[in-house]
Design brief:
Pdz3 Domain, four-stranded antiparallel beta sheet, alpha+beta, PDZ_6, 2 domains, Pept_M50_Zn, 12 strands
Length: 352
Amino acid sequence: MIVSIILFIIIFCVLVVSHELGHFLIARKNGIHVVEFFIGMGPSLISFEKGGTKYSLKLLPIGGACVFEGEDGQNMGEEQSEEGEGSFQKASVGARFATVLAGPVANFVIAYLFALIIVWFCGVMMPTISSVTEGGAAEAAGLQEGDVITRINGEKIHMWEDIRLAALIGQGGSMTIEYERQGEKDEVILNPVYDENGDTWYIGIMGGTDLKICTVPETFQYGFYVLEYTVKATAKSLVMLVRGQLSADAVSGPVGMVQYVDQTYDAVKDYGMSNVIINMVNIAMMLSISLGVMNLLPLPALDGGRLVFLLVEMVRGKPVPPEKEGLVHLGGMIALMILMVFVLVNDISKLL
């Protein structure tokens, strides 16, 4: 477990640092003064000041932040209050929008780099059918072993994982399957079959055995496909959670993620350090995308919520009063803290 905790802390630091570094670099480029750059929450373990910015590492691995001069009407010194130089509120709306957006964008960039590593060392599974379930929906539609699925409901299929995601999104609806068989293109209508025991819809095909080892150009191409797939899967999971199609147990905080890292580590450690590293990179990629997607949600206290206020400012031609926006984000932060406590208690309960 100690090794898993260390691995989680490394992953956590990489993701949070990349997110906050995105904010930091674009803020500095636009002349916005960063008061503090910190990783974690709670009391500081280590801190130092350089170039007018305080850098801190805090006790609890549950987030981080870039604190800007004059953000939400706070942290404004006398000089900044009078002259506005370095104040977040005095920067142009475009500069502020770019600064806020840079955090989630940085998460997608680092996730793409992780995807490149995964594709380069592991390759990708192509959307080739290895077998068809007897009496299943695919057999009834006329699909056969060796068929390569190219589109589902008009959406391009690049990898085997895309098929599984399309089946999940479809939720049992009819699927228009375009495929290639011995160089010939064709399409069929497939109607998934519901299984009461598994409480899911099955399309009746097996795959994930046609491994493609990528060249350098293909690595960049398929790295993007892996990124695209993971973003779609993350967004779909959020929608299913909101609709009640996923239980609260599907949500995990730091404790749950440490447990997941530990389970993964135990499963692959006997296969060598390279397997451990690749699996940790895969977890880091998924978490980085989750962090990016979550922060883009239009909710108070998140980057997406701040972007909403900036869009309102662009439309109105004047900003929402900083003190009012600050109150909204404060309320969002309180709600977020309550959610984090709930997730923490839920994670601990699953261990008992």
